[in-house]
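Our collaborator T.R. sent over the components below with a one-line note: 'Predict the complex.' Nothing else. No constraints on interfaces, no templates requested, no preferences about which chain binds where. So this is a plain run: every listed entity goes in together, and whatever single assembly comes back becomes the starting point for the next discussion.
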Amino acid sequence: MTGLPKQLLTTLCGLVCSLMIGTAAAEIVVVVSRDNPVDSLSRTELADIYLGRMDRFPNGDPAMPIDQAERSPAHDAFYNDYLGRSPAQIKAHWSRLIFTGRGQPPRSLKDGDTVAEFIADNPRAIGYVDRSMVGEQLRVVTIE
Amino acid sequence: MSSAPEQASRATVQGQERAGARGWLYRLTDPRVLFTGIAVFLLAVIWGTALNFAAKERTAATRTAGTLTEDVANTYEAQVVRALREIDHTLKLVRYELEDRPPGEVLEDLGANGLLLPGLLFTVSIVDADGDVVATNGDASGRNVAELDFFREARQADGMAVGLPRRDADTGEQRLHFARSSGSDGSGFPGVVMVSVHAGYFVSGYEPSLLGEQGVLGLVGTDGVFRARRTGDAVSAGEVIDYESLVADDGDGSARVRVNPWDGVRRYTVARKLFEFPVAIVVGLSRAEQLAAADQLARSYMWRAGAASVLALAVVALLGRLTWKLQWAHARVTEERIAHARRVEYLAYHDNLTDLPNRAFFSRLLTEKMQHARRYRKNLALLFLDLDRFKTINDSLGHDAGDELLQEMARRLRNAVRDSDTVARLGGDEFVILLPEVTSPAQVPPVAEKILAAVGKPFTLVGQEFRVTVSIGVTLYPDDGEDEQTLMKNADVAMYHAKEQGKNNFQFYSEELNADSLERLALESSLRNALERWEFRLFYQAKQSSSDGRITGMEALLRWEHPELGLIPPLQFIPLAEETGLIVPIGRWVVRSACRQNVAWQNEGFPPLSMAINLSARQFLDENLLDDIRSALRETGMDPRLLELEITESMIMRDMQQTIHILNDLKAMGVRVAIDDFGTGYSSLSTLKEFPLDTIKIDRSFTHDIVRSAEDKGLTDAVIAVGKSLSLTVVAEGVETAEQAEYLRSRSCDEFQGFYINEPLPPAEFAQLVRGKMR
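Returned assembly:
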């Protein structure tokens, strides 16, 4: 794959997302700490980590998924864009897992800045923030 | 009536008895029974197996469903207990923290340390004593819950209050609230800590793979209100049910099938009250769903059993049909054989012309009936029948006509008697009728009369109407004979007596008859030898001209000079000779002797006297008649013109064509022909004209009464007139008195014959008479 179509796709996707959620917020990206060696994940791997089916990165390092607050635009956009699931589906999913004692939902932090901050301090953590919030300590993970 | 079928039926009865002895085994071999049995057995096996399998499947499925329900219930119970404990734990933790810190700080701190329940599902709130939410990790801030049930309950009771499901105004989902009071003992924040979670959480463990589409998972409060209930994907809450009836009788916690009142579905249901909390879990597995596989399997068993049944029935039916066909063919062969045997037996015992029992069969029947009559002291009557004119008809019309006559007679005889009477044909024109159970001889005459009437009715044969009569001899058993032979012989004797009595009548047997019969038998045997022994004599009776008394000729009359019995008149032996057929050789002798005598007298110089000879019916019909006469004339040298053959009126009427033919031949030879006993028959003038006749003779019966009876006078006059008109010579027979002679002379009768003038004389005396006249 060449860079141009990918860029175009990402731009288009972001545009569509922003239109859908009705805010000026731009593109949501998946990020890890700069200390984390992971630089790309497949969609399936990302979904597995976020839905509690996998607690490690593909390289074997422990993974700690971080959520933004429920019903926040970033939260809904992330699940919609990357996992293809609605908030209700996510809620039902975790509801079943928690009730049957088979897992705990990702830790939820109240906004993008908090998430960025937390991930910067935790090499095991993985989260999602608006591209504008990606700073020095964070690295965008390519989702294939 | 027939004993052959009786014997056959007796044999059948014996066969059935044997079959009865072998009983069921015999019936089993009947293909209908055998193959029906096999079919029933096969169907029983097939369906028995199928139903057994189906029942086993169902039992297994039932047991599995019960066990599964209990397993799910155990798991669910543990999950619910853990979930409630987590909630309660959180409530207690928050209350504990509230003892030291303000509400807002507590929640933030606990949340930051991950000590609160996941905010994704749970909302933890702190409410003050007035019901205002003072702190929350969700979006419940600013609400007041003072009026809500869990708040009040928590304020009043010590344990965890489990609130009624409540619809969330924002999301529309049912939420459950759990609350504990805090600071009630005076320490810490006075209020209530509460946790709310959507009701679906408690039923999110619903596994469609286990519970199906119609299973149920539920949490019901001891107040009877469902906190949460899920069936398939449908989650509900808030229905009120009869808690006691659902949970109370569920002592051992095992699953039982019941119709769930909330949705009417029949389920394997477990309802179990939790130990620590005022709630009970409800787990149900749809009976229909759990047994669907088993039912499906059972149905497939039924289908297979059905298919197997059809196949088995088809095979059995095919085999049965083949066997049945085989047996049928076999039975038919046997039947044909039996039928053939019966037919053979029937033919052996029946006359094939008339279909009546024959002599052999009748003999057997008679013996049987006699035995029967002897045993029960009863009487039998035996009627021996002989048709009177059969031989003549058979001879003159041919055998086919004779056969037809016999068949007709057989029919009439059978119709004339009752079914219980036996009619048999002994052969020829002899029939015999057996009347069983006759109590008195008086019963016989009506039957005999009836038979005579039946036989005597006219019938048409070869286009001519005929009338046949029968002579009947009757014997009674045991009076007239105690054995078959005697009985038959005596009946025969009685029959001959009837013949002698003028035929067309019946006669009972008597001892005297037997004596007569013996005489007759003796006569018959000696008659056979009479010709050889030269015992016959010819007498001659003169015929005289009525005008001048001149002897014109003579009539040869046969006499039998029996060595022991003396001279026997013709009436006594001629019928016998007719019957036995001896009449033909005797007649031949008569013609020859008469011719020879006539020639001898001519040679002596006698005038040309005519010689009249009587021909019997039998002789007249004999095919050698003409040859015999021709040769007699040739051998003796007799002048044919002097020979006059006398025949009776009834003889010429029998077959006119043949008669005319014979008469013409005689005429050609120059022989004269006279009609004897003219006037007794029914020949008309016109038919008489057809015949080439020379002479008619007035019967002696007319002549006899000619003086006294005006009728006979008239008849005689008429006969004479007829003869004159046809230019025939008219001769009066049996003239015995002068008055008769005078009358006839007055009527111009040509010639006389009779005792008045001349009695029949032996040749020598006759010659003297002629010589006397000549002088």
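Summary for T.R.: Confidence is low (pLDDT under 50) at residues 14-25 of chain A.
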